[in-house]
Design brief:
CATH class: Mainly Alpha
Shape: globular
Strand content: under 5%
Structural class: mainly alpha
CATH architecture: Up-down Bundle
Radius of gyration: 18 Å
Number of strands: 0
Number of domains: 1
Order of helices and strands: HHHHHHHH
Number of helices: 8
Largest sheet: none
CATH topology: Rhopdopsin 7-helix transmembrane proteins
Length: about 230
């Protein structure tokens, strides 16, 4: 039963990542959020394949899994997420150079930080992950407030609860293992993958609501999907 729930939660995250990532790019031209969601989905695909193939820790897929993990926890679902959401909260649109630079930073961080997994010094990057998550959580709380302010009350609550769940996962990840979990941390990963998929979906719907409100109030022009795709 646990194995089935693990697979379903991973498939959910993969679907949410690719679907919402494509929507971010196709509909809004937001490559920061779109590509980060693609990375999350690709990470989930690699993790699922690695698990189904036996979970060999000497496999290159294991190295890839923790590189993706380090990318998203250090820069992706923190700096990139905040910068991407600032398009609808502060009408901030970074240049192509900034987009490339922040993803390059994420790649470097992912390759560097993954080496600490399973070693005594892992507490250092683990603490860093918690700190950047806490900082991004503050901004995401602000996003929930913005949703509440535009009377998207249901979305505001959903966004706040999703952010709280993600913060719990981030804190639990390295420092507070779930009581009674097995040696593979299956229960944790079921909860984590489901939460990360929920983040991809809820933040996309929240972005859409804020964008539509900005268009309705004249704060930004409407977006035509065809023109974005051709740009």
């Amino acid at each position: 039963m646990k194995a089935l729930l693990f697979m379903l939660s991973d498939l959910w995250m993969i679907f949410a990542g690719f679907f919402c990532g494509w929507k971010f790019i196709r509909r809004y031209g937001n490559y920061l959020l779109g590509l980060e969601w693609f990375i999350v989905a690709t990470s989930g695909s690699n993790f699922l394949a690695w698990s189904l193939l036996g979970g060999d820790t000497s496999s290159p897929m294991y190295f890839i899994a923790y590189s993706f993990d380090a990318f998203s926890r250090s820069v992706g679902v923190s700096l990139i997420l905040v910068m991407g959401l600032m398009r609808v909260t502060h009408r901030y649109k970074p240049t192509l150079t900034v987009d490339i630079a922040v993803f390059a930073l994420g790649v470097v961080a992912g390759l560097y930080l993954q080496q600490f997994h399973g070693h005594g010094f892992h507490v250092v990057p683990a603490t860093f992950y918690v700190v950047v998550n806490a900082l991004s959580t503050l901004f995401l709380a602000y996003v929930s407030w913005r949703l509440w302010k535009i009377r998207a009350r249901g979305l505001a609550i959903a966004s706040a609860l999703t952010t709280a769940a993600a913060a719990f996962i981030a804190l639990t990840y390295d420092f507070f293992p779930l009581p009674g979990d097995d040696e593979y941390h299956t229960t944790f990963y079921i909860l984590a993958l489901a939460t990360w998929g929920l983040q991809a979906f809820v933040y996309f719907v929240s972005y859409r609501a804020l964008h539509n409100h900005n268009v309705a109030t004249g704060a930004e022009p409407a977006v035509n999907e065809r023109s974005v795709a051709q740009a």
